[in-house]
Design a protein that fits this description.
It comes from Bifidobacterium magnum. InterPro entries: ConA-like_dom_sf (IPR013320), GH32_Enzymes (IPR051214), Glyco_hydro_32 (IPR001362), Glyco_hydro_32_C (IPR013189), Glyco_hydro_32_N (IPR013148), Glyco_hydro_beta-prop_sf (IPR023296). With 527 residues, this protein is mainly beta. It has 2 domains: 339 residues, 5 Propeller (Tachylectin-2, Chain A), CATH 2.115.10.20; 150 residues, Jelly Rolls. It has 2 helices and 35 strands. Strands 24-35-26-31-32-33 form a 6-stranded antiparallel β-sheet. Strands 25-34-27-28-29-30 form a 6-stranded antiparallel β-sheet, with no helix packed on it. The N and C termini lie far apart (48 Å). 49% of the residues are buried.
Length: 527
């Protein structure tokens, strides 16, 4: 394929970008002014008002950590995409920055879609993203017309950007509309780009491009095609190397598999974000050595993006409210991101994801208890009202007779709660929302290996924010992220034991401070 990668960026303005940004700021501020904070997070990133989805442009640059995100500033449901922005000096406290991008070019008139950030050979930052417009000019009934775009910051603060324009057009005869979410990296002397594609045969693919100057790109082939013919698009792709215990480089390919059908405990969400581990020779195809594995087994995890800084690989995901009812959309805001996580390749040869160590700096007080024994069908209140806390549990599996043991969080006077428990019959960790009065219900179940089940202990690291939970299992071997919309009244956290007894050999409950974004103003100054 040729003739769809121009020698210079194509720039076609249709609106004044600064004016569009100002309108977006006013839209967010209007929604934030009437925001209901009953589920608004204290230590997760969210927009002060409006809908958010995918994390974008993650980077460390100019002495600050930067997180951008997809934003609809005029409503609490998905709409024309902008880029919101927060930054931090310490990965603990975050500051709101001005909205970074609004639609202002012909190629992006219906949305500035997702993309990534990378530092070039001169130490300058470049932003690659997808420009989106409806093929029929008005709505999604005629499909998408998507292209890849380039922008550059006007200074090191990353508070304003110059759009360079389109750098990769869409060969519409080879693509079934979906064509988005660029990820750029350098291996050797060559810059590479990949993004997700639905081929003309409706197969989920990631295409590979090369460049010497990050402006003129050349198509190099299909990096990877998903073997499942039901998967029609690989959304929000990622690609990066990790070193295994033997010092060998492994490549991790990540994507959200659109079209994958549920299979037992797998693929229970609308679309499912996961990864494969394998090998890659620069310029060639990715060769998987593992099956597709989920990044996160919760109800509400999607579109993760990773980046490299300080020799480590970090990742943030979107807690996606795909399934109605979505009660927070009536509160002036909708959606938040996960905690910042670090990705490592464990001794077992698999991915482990853990909260960044800096998260511990949010702790303000701690309750400690050891060797807590519960009789059958009993509970113990750890704290009568918690809206932002972290719980570390060690459950004694060797002497467990309970069928389910763990936590009830967001337990309110009306009898509502979310269960986070080990289920002995399944041999899995379960988030069960059946007893919740608000939002979607159902349960999700994360697997434990035979070695973990035989080890005699289970470690759970649980974060409870006002409207969501994250569960890290055995040092991040598996993770679960779900919304949990508490009812009115105090929100207790309880240890529970169902149909049998259990012992928690260690219990730690840490109250957590705000990261500085839960004020209602659209631009905060916490630093």
């Amino acid at each position: 394929m040729t003739n769809f990668t121009p020698s210079q960026p194509v720039l076609t303005p249709i609106a004044n970008h600064k004016e569009q940004l100002a309108l977006a700021e006013r839209g967010v501020a209007k929604l934030a002014a009437g925001r209901n904070d009953r589920w608004y997070p204290k230590f997760h990133i969210a927009s002060p008002g409006g809908w958010i989805n995918d994390p974008n442009g993650l980077c460390y640059y100019g002495g600050r950590w930067h997180v951008f995100y997809q934003l609809h500033p005029y409503g609490t449901q998905w709409g024309p995409m902008h880029w919101g922005h927060v930054s931090s000096t310490d990965l603990v406290h975050w500051k709101r920055e001005p909205i970074a991008f609004a639609p202002s070019l012909e190629q992006e008139k219906d949305g500035v879609f997702s993309g990534s950030a990378v530092v070039d050979d001169n130490g300058d930052l470049k932003i690659f993203y997808t420009g989106h417009r409806w093929a029929n000019g008005k709505d999604n009934t005629g499909g998408d017309w998507q292209v890849q775009m380039l922008a550059e910051p006007e200074d090191d603060s990353l508070t304003s950007f110059t759009k360079r324009g389109m750098i990769i057009d869409c060969p519409v005869d080879e693509v079934d509309h979906h064509y988005r979410d660029p990820k750029v990296w350098k291996t050797g002397d060559t810059w590479y780009m990949t993004f997700g594609v639905s081929s003309k045969d409706k197969r989920g693919q990631m295409w590979l491009f090369t460049s010497e100057d990050m402006v003129r790109w050349t198509y190099a082939g299909v990096l990877f095609e998903h073997p499942d013919p039901d998967v029609f698009m690989l959304e929000c792709p990622d690609f990066f190397p990790l070193t295994d215990k033997n010092g060998e480089t492994k490549w991790v390919i990540g994507f959200s598999a659109m079209g994958a059908k549920p299979d037992g405990f797998m693929n229970r969400n609308v679309s499912n974000a996961g990864y494969m581990i394998g090998s890659w020779t620069p310029g060639g195809k990715f060769v998987p050595e593992t099956e597709f594995r989920l990044w996160d087994w919760g109800h509400n995890f999607y579109a993760p993006q990773s980046f490299t800084a300080d020799g480590r690989q970090f990742m943030v995901g979107w807690m996606s409210p795909f399934v109605q009812p979505i009660p927070m959309e009536h509160d002036g805001w909708c959606g938040n991101l996960t905690l910042m996580r670090e990705i490592v390749l464990g001794e077992d040869g698999d991915i482990h994801t853990i909260p960044v160590a800096q998260t511990e700096e949010l702790r303000t007080s701690t309750i400690e208890r050891d060797n807590v024994a519960l009789r059958p069908n009993t509970s113990l209140t750890l704290t009568p009202d918690a809206q932002a806390c972290e719980i570390e549990l060690t459950l004694d599996l060797a002497n467990l007779t309970a069928e389910r043991a763990g936590l009830h969080v967001n337990a309110t006077p009306d009898g509502s709660y979310t269960s986070i428990v080990f289920d002995a019959q399944l041999g899995r960790v379960v988030i069960d929302r059946q007893a919740m009065a608000n939002g979607d219900k159902g349960y999700r179940a994360a697997p434990l290996s035979a070695e973990e089940l035989a080890s005699g202990t289970l470690n759970l690291h649980v974060f409870v924010d006002r409207g969501c939970v994250e569960v890290y299992i055995n040092g991040g071997k598996q993770v679960m992220s779900s919304y949990s919309f508490a009812s009115e009244g105090p929100r207790a956290i309880e240890l529970v034991s169902e149909s049998g007894s259990c012992v928690f050999s260690s219990v730690r409950v840490h109250e957590l401070a705000s990261i500085g974004l839960d004020a209602s103003s659209s631009l905060d100054t916490v630093d």
